[in-house]
Amino acid sequence: MSGSGKSLHDRVRLLYEGRSKRATRFRYGLLMFDAASIVFILATATLPLTPALLLADMAVASVIAADFACRLWIAETRLRHLRQLYVLVDIVVLASLLAAPMLGQGWAALRLLRALRLVHSYHLLRDLRRDWRFFRLHEDAILSAVNLLVFIFAMTALVHLLRGGREPGLNTYVDALYFTVTTLTTTGYGDILMTTWTGRLLAVAIMIVGVGLFLRLARTIFVPAKVRHKCPECGLLKHDPDAIHCKHCGIELKIETEGAA
């Protein structure tokens, strides 16, 4: 069937899952939107909810809602699709944006959870590996850094929402970000303290999960990187850059190289 004869459903599905240049540009556009929305919330986190800011919130919400509706529409099994982590995150983000006029700017900070989508889509990862040599060489480190940043922003939003104004020295989003980073790095200057069991449990969660993510990032930076090449025999996905045989099954490998410049 020709491109002009495809249904709207097929055309939308090809945008999200296809391998054409148009589909690739579309997915890069979504990635740029996600990154821009994160910068936006960071820049406006401490500002009052003015009509202009609310209008910008609604514009962000409309794009997320359209993306959510399209993904749900093209999903093969919609109930299974709705149970995926990133879909649940989109629902939370939309709810926080729509509730911002009633509940305040703190709830809108939860839109930072949208960052969970950054470079985690299978099709987007495929595009990045194909188009960007830097990403191919440093994929593990990039993904670890993204996971750590998303965790910091998400926990900052939770700290601000649950304990902002209820703990001494913890009044603004910046205060919550400062507390999250100092707790994660176990610096603990002591100028902001959690005095309730809720706040202390948050601090424990930040330390346990955050330190693990930080150590994972450090490991991906300092441990020699592996190359992605699926073994045709056993399916092992990552190998040493100079590997000739699979360490798991011993079969000969033919790993593609970048070649001479």
Automatic annotation (TrEMBL):
Keyword Transmembrane attributed: yes
Main subcellular location: membrane
Bilayer disposition of the protein: Multi-pass membrane protein
KW Transport (keyword) present: yes
Regions crossing the membrane: 28-47, 53-74, 86-108, 141-162, 174-194, 200-218
Entry keyword set: Ion channel, Ion transport, Membrane, Potassium, Potassium channel, Potassium transport, Transmembrane, Transmembrane helix, Transport
Pfam families to which the protein is assigned, alphabetical: Ion_trans_2 (PF07885)
Domain annotation Potassium channel: ranges: 149-221
Top-level taxon: Bacteria
Subcellular location: Membrane
InterPro entries given in the database record: K_chnl_dom, K_chnl_Slo-like, K_chnl_volt-dep_EAG/ELK/ERG, Volt_channel_dom_sf
Name of the protein this chain belongs to: Ion channel
Organism: Roseovarius ramblicola
